[in-house]
Design brief:
Distance between the termini: 44 Å
CATH class of the largest domain: Mainly Beta
Structural class: alpha/beta
CATH architecture of the largest domain: Sandwich
Order of helices and strands: HHEEEEEEHEEEE
Number of domains: 2
Largest sheet: 5 strands, mixed
Oligomer: single chain
Number of helices: 3
CATH topology of the largest domain: Protocatechuate 3,4-Dioxygenase, subunit A
Shape: globular
Strand content: 25-35%
Length: 212
């Protein structure tokens, strides 16, 4: 006869009934269970790590605009927040951010398309740049990240683009094509904005750090 194992809700209900899980104020068992489940649902999974790559350079300036007048490549804005696994803003975070130019070339002598930004008072960071190009060794468009914050593990990761032809219009199926992207969650949806100004793309990459 197979053993019937309790699910997580059963375990929580037993803990409440036996006094192992108590509310700090007067609440019913149903309310306490609801509060606990809401808190667990709000927990954030740490952002997946990726390879650093050979083109990282220390000392990038804090610049929010990387795209210069006359730069080739489709305009791109990258926005996001740095959070912890509870969904709270991480104070003191820095975000190193670098990518290739429209032709897939990295600036290895200067700091073109490189920055080290500090999120603002709302925890938001925003960088105006261009869509990076493709190159033979890593044929998917991508942006490199290195995120550090006091009391948290430093994270190295990358952002990819769901609209990239590399994923053949189906990133859910092709996200691990040729082993380039290591995590489906890092292939991000792209918004396109049109209007009187030049069109631009936008991705949102909220980063979740683990405590050290």
């Amino acid at each position: 006869m197979s053993e019937i194992r309790p699910n997580r809700r059963d375990v929580l209900e037993r803990c409440i009934a036996s006094g192992l899980l108590l509310g700090g104020v007067t609440v019913t068992q149903r309310q306490l269970l609801g509060f606990w489940e809401q808190a667990e649902a709000a927990a954030h999974k740490p952002t997946s790590a990726e390879v650093l790559g050979p083109f990282f350079r220390k000392g990038a300036p804090n610049m929010k605009t990387l795209r210069g007048a006359g730069d080739l490549g489709f305009p791109l804005q990258v926005v996001g927040k740095v959070l912890n696994t509870k969904g709270l803003l991480v104070e003191g975070a820095t975000v190193d951010f670098w990518h290739a130019d429209h032709a897939g070339r990295y600036d290895t002598k200067g700091y073109k398309y490189r920055t080290k930004v500090t999120p603002d008072g709302t925890g938001e960071y925003a960088v105006d740049t261009i869509l990076p190009g493709h190159y033979e060794d890593r044929p998917a468009q991508h942006i490199h990240y290195l995120i550090a914050a006091p009391g948290h593990k430093t994270l190295v990761t990358q952002a990819y683009f769901a609209t990239d032809p590399f994923f053949e219009g189906d990133p859910a199926k092709n996200w691990n094509k040729r082993g380039i992207a290591h995590n489906r969650e890092l292939v991000l949806p792209v918004k396109l904005f049109e209007g009187p100004a030049a069109p631009r793309a936008e991705i949102r990459f909220d980063i979740v750090l683990e405590r050290a």
